[in-house]
Specification:
The complex is a heterodimer of chains A (about 425) and B (about 250). With about 425 residues, chain A is of the alpha/beta class. Chain A is built from ten helices and 20 strands. In chain A, a hairpin with a 2-residue loop joins β1 and β2. In chain A, α2 packs antiparallel against α7. Chain B has about 250 residues and is α/β, with parallel strands linked by helices. In chain B, the strands form three sheets. A six-stranded mixed beta sheet of chain B has the order 6-9-10-3-11-12, sandwiched between helices. Chain B has a four-stranded antiparallel beta sheet with strand order 2-1-4-5. The chains are: A alpha/beta (about 425), B alpha/beta (about 250). Chains A and B meet through α8 and α9 of A and α2, β7, α3 and β8 of B. Bound molecules: adenosine-5'-triphosphate (ATP) and magnesium ion. Magnesium ion binds next to α1 of chain B.
Chain lengths: ~425, ~250
């Protein structure tokens, strides 16, 4: 139907060799795979993919990592752990869950936390219900591909009124194997009045090339609170495609804090569905692009289908060299979603004259009693501030770094979890220090 | 200490037209001396300060400046600071997101590094800054705010003096630090400046009011009009200017 690039042979092969043990999944995956192959890789003629060119998928060749071949040292893994706090830690290397590197000691008995493979065996009904929920091939082609290829990931089910004190840290690590593709899925289900804090981190050791297509589903039932954080610090040549689906029931609160530092091409779509009255959602992001030809594309879509909901979307980014960022914030307020309050902002700081930003706010509002606002800017470092710092003896590079971090500060300060914020701040500062 | 010879500087205005602002400045400030510059609005006093500190918007078209034998105009702003220059700005900028204490520590340690001194550790730094902030009459809470953000006019000026006391420059320029200060603050600023006075240090005070010069007694007073120093004299010149204004001097300008 759509005029797309030729399908690469590796993808056809990859899709054809998917063999889930569960019959229902095998069937679902075969259908999804056929549909995706028919649809094809999204092309730049599609509005949602206007600025992000995926045609390289047809030029390169990716394979599945069938068994874990990398031997990552525990010291490397330990370097990723949160400092000054005990966390629940789940490690996946090249797409494979590695129990020996994980640490579940602090997991309360009533909570289910396991790899997706284990969940498919023991919690098939829940997985099935949630897996089919956000399928929409035309709108979310890579989410469909993810479901078609689903093999691993993380499954979390927090029962009613359960509060998990320790943060859950999910680490996706890549190393040693080149040109592999993974389609992990994280399923986070917080039942009524449950509370959980998560950190999903994507990182690599060594210079490897790979393609990640991850989906994270967050379901917050009535009164649940989910604080979700994400670090995308993939290798410099990696491709990172992510979809985060957030479904919110009455009076729930979901916060997402996303920090994009790595990959050559990064695309993240966040879809927030405010499904019942009075749900609150804060969607924050920061991106820092420091390589030539680095490309980060953020699409955030908030759908207010119920009244008295609020959404606050603040994305900021800093761009150096010949990098490019895309931001598309879309807010849709349905007819019945009265008393909705929605805000979106995207601010960009260009450190180089060759960097480029395309930012586009969109509102579609069908209710009459709502408050919506937005703000978008693209600017440079303030020369007077830079001069002021330098006149006090601070070297130019250090002064630029200070001002760049200052630019990020208000988004970073929206994070309330001290240790996660600390870790994100350190990573951001390391990235900023790199770019001279 | 500081020698300015025939300094000419221009600026590109909003319409990208080149405007000559400094038109042949000559000054000679010796170690231990305090000089004052007075002059009508727009005569180029702040421009001179900014040119000395190395602001990139101003273009020096002729002349030289030597600080302690160094060719000042060839140095970057941070190298000038390392050479001992400090400018208390007439209009200090607000820098949201940069913590005041962090900034002061970065500045001090950067200058220490250039003097081949080890960085001050957190405890020593805290002790030092707590004693200095008392001297300028600011509450310690100002240390945890963003640099100058939301500070009142007088608080900004006190913060400039705090920086000066922390960084201990060899040559300080105070550009209308007294403007907008109440009497108590004025005395506090004067006390701070006087505490820095020493045979090795020199200070250039830019002011519109002779009142400040009662507290910081200058060795030489200069009158700047239209980008030139048209008259210099002792501290009584300030009194004379206060009484007569600038009109009687206009004939002296080129
Ligand atoms: N960035 C600029 N763009 C355009 N004109 C400028 C700029 N900076 C200074 N000028 C002009 O240069 C002249 C000198 O300004 P300057 O600020 O040096 O005066 P000043 O003597 O410090 O005055 P005041 O006593 O009011 O502080 C003024 O006419 C001013 O408008
Ligand atoms: Mg001035």
């Amino acid at each position: 139907m759509m005029n797309q690039a030729a399908l690469p042979a590796w993808l056809t092969t990859y899709v054809a060799t998917q063999q889930a043990t569960e019959a229902w999944l095998r069937e679902l995956q075969q259908t999804l795979a056929q549909d995706f192959l028919q649809r094809g890789i999204p092309s730049r003629r599609e509005e949602e993919w206007k600025y992000t060119d995926m045609s390289f998928l047809a030029k390169e060749c990716f394979t599945k990592s069938s068994t874990l071949r990398s031997v990552v040292s525990p010291a490397i893994v330990a370097g990723h752990r949160l400092k000054n706090i005990e966390s629940i830690f789940i490690v996946l290397v090249n797409g494979h869950f590695v129990e020996s590197l994980s640490d579940m000691r602090l997991l309360p008995d009533s909570v289910t936390l396991c790899s997706m493979k284990q969940a498919l065996q023991h919690h098939a009904e829940l997985v099935k219900a949630h897996l089919t929920r956000n399928l929409n091939l035309q709108k979310h082609p890579f989410a469909s591909l993810n479901a078609a290829m689903l093999a691993e990931g993380v499954f979390l089910h927090v029962p009613k009124k359960t509060v998990i004190a320790a943060p859950i840290h999910i680490l996706y690590l890549h190393g040693e194997e080149n040109n592999i593709v993974t389609c992990p899925r994280n399923m986070i289900i917080a039942d009524e009045h449950a509370q959980v804090t998560l950190l999903e981190e994507h990182s690599a050791y060594g210079a490897v090339t790979y393609f990640t297509n991850v989906v994270t589903d967050i379901h917050a039932e009535a009164g649940a609170k989910v604080h979700y954080h994400k670090i995308q610090n993939d290798a410099a040549k990696a491709t990172h495609i992510a979809q985060i689906f957030v479904n919110q029931q009455q009076d729930s609160l979901v916060e997402t804090h996303s920090l994009a530092l790595g990959s050559k091409l990064g695309r993240e779509d966040v879809f927030v569905n405010i499904k019942a009255r009075g749900a609150h959602s804060n969607i924050n992001g920061f991106y820092c692009l420091t390589q030539d030809d680095q490309h980060i594309d953020n699409h955030v879509h908030v759908d207010h289908a119920a009244s008295h909901g609020t959404s606050n979307m603040v994305y900021k980014g800093v761009l150096d060299k010949k990098s490019r960022a895309v931001f598309n914030g879309k807010i849709y307020v349905h007819k019945g979603a009265q008393k909705t309050q929605s805000y979106q902002a995207n601010h960009n700081l260009l450190l180089s004259t060759q960097a480029e930003v395309d930012t586009k706010p969109e509102f579609e509002i069908y209710a009459d009693d709502v408050k919506c606002a937005h703000g978008d800017t693209v600017g440079q470092l303030d020369m007077d501030s830079l001069f002021y710092l330098r006149s006090r003896g601070i070297e130019k590079q250090a002064a630029m770094k200070l001002l760049t971090y200052a630019f990020a500060a208000d988004v970073m300060n929206k994070m309330t979890h001290t240790q996660i914020k600390q870790r994100m701040t350190i990573l951001l500062n390391e990235k900023l220090a790199h770019d001279d | 200490m500081l020698t300015i010879r025939n300094l000419h500087a221009t600026i590109q205005d909003e319409k990208q037209k080149t405007k000559a602002i400094l038109r042949g400045i000559n000054l000679d400030i010796k170690p231990g001396e305090v000089h004052a510059i007075m002059g009508p609005n727009g005569s180029g006093k702040s421009t001179l300060s900014n040119v000395l500190a190395g602001h990139a918007d101003y273009h020096v078209t002729a002349g030289d400046v030597m600080l302690d034998g160094k060719v000042l105009l060839e140095l970057s702003p941070e190298e000038r600071a390392a050479a001992g220059l400090f400018l208390a700005f007439q209009y200090p900028v607000e820098i949201p997101g940069v913590n005041n204490m962090y900034f002061l520590k970065a500045a001090l340690n950067s200058l220490r590094k250039s003097r081949e001194l080890p960085p001050l550790d957190a405890m020593d730094f805290l002790q030092l800054i707590k004693s200095k902030i008392k001297d300028v009459g600011l509450d310690e809470a100002f240390l945890n705010r963003a640099v100058n953000e939301g500070f009142s006019g007088g608080e900004k000026k006190r913060n400039e003096i705090l920086q000066m006391l922390m960084l201990e420059p060899r040559f300080a320029i105070l550009d209308e630090t007294d403007s907008g200060l109440d009497i108590d603050a004025l005395q506090m600023v004067a006390k701070g400046v006087n505490s820095l006075r020493s045979p090795e240090r020199s200070i250039l005070v830019i002011t519109h009011y002779q009142r400040l010069l009662d507290y910081i007694v200058p060795d030489v007073v200069h009158v700047m009009v239209n980008g030139q120093v048209i008259k210099s004299g002792g501290k009584e010149l300030a009194l004379e200017l206060e009484a007569k204004g600038y009109g009687w001097l206009e004939g002296l300008a080129e």
